[in-house]
Amino acid sequence: MKLIFLSLFLAVGSVFGQKLIWKENQKLSWENFKSPVNRKNNPDVAAYTHCGWEYSVVKSTNPKSPVTVEIKTIFNEDKSWKDIKKINDYILLHEQKHFDIAELFVRKMRKSVAESIRTSADYDRLFKAIYNEISNGYKNFQTSYDRETNHGMNKEKQAAYNTAIAEELEHLKSYKTP
User: Fold this and answer.
1) Are the CB atoms for 145 and 162 separated by under 8 Å?
2) Kind and range of the H or E element at 47?
3) Sign of CA dihedral 109, 115, 120, 125
4) For 53-69, what is the HEC assignment?
5) pLDDT interval class at 57 (50, 70, 90)
6) Is the pLDDT of residue 9 over 50?
7) Largest alpha-carbon pair distance within the chain?
8) How far apart are CA 67 and CA 99, in angstroms?
9) In this predicted structure, what is the pLDDT of residue 16?
10) What sign results for the dihedral spanned by CA atoms 178, 56, 136, 44?
11) How far apart are CA 105 and CA 168, in angstroms?
12) What is the pLDDT of residue 6?
């Protein structure tokens, strides 16, 4: 019986160990980038952060019942990679900001959900549009971030983004997870 429990515990740990949940005081380290594969096929890219969010919903078939939506910002270790010949602390900060941007947009989604969705009927009617709007904004922001900072090589733009992301996270701090 103990062997079955231990095997189950190890299997669960290996499945769930591939994702990190965003936490304010926990920063990424190069050890979190576990994929050996450069999925961008671009020799100039030093690292890739695979992050986003997951959500779960508890709702009822009764349209007037309350609904609970939980959204978490995640970093996928097994899909994030680094070129060990090119990495440094500055590049790690740029990659951390990708993860922080994901948290920023999760907070925006939590805010929209909190302001709009109270019942199962609200969820059915509104969630998909909220999700799509936030998701599109997220993708556009991530693209602009990399383009305008030249993947972190433009230090002036990188510094401006670092400040803007921190200010927005602070502005939406009431929507962070406890």
Assistant:
1) no
2) strand 47-48
3) negative
4) EEEEEECCCCCCCECEE
5) very high
6) no
7) 59
8) 28
9) 47
10) positive
11) 10
12) 37
Residues 6+ apart with CB under 8 A from 178: none
Q: Record the pTM.
A: 0.88
> Amino acid identity of 131?
Y
The residue among 93, 91, 99, 171 whose CA lies nearest residue 138 is 99
Contacts of 136 (CB under 8 A, 6+ apart): none
Q: And the tokens for 140?
A: 């556009």
Please give the Cα distance from 81 to 122 (Å, whole number). Answer: 39
Beta bridge partners of 148: none
Q: How far is CA 59 from CA 68, 116, 124, in A?
A: 7, 15, 10
Distances (CA, A) of 11 to 14, 41, 76, 136: 5, 31, 17, 35
> What does the pLDDT look like over 85-122, one tens digit per residue?
999 999 999 999 999 999 999 999 999 999 999 999 99
Structure tokens at 124: 């059915």
Tokens standing for residue 155:
């230090």
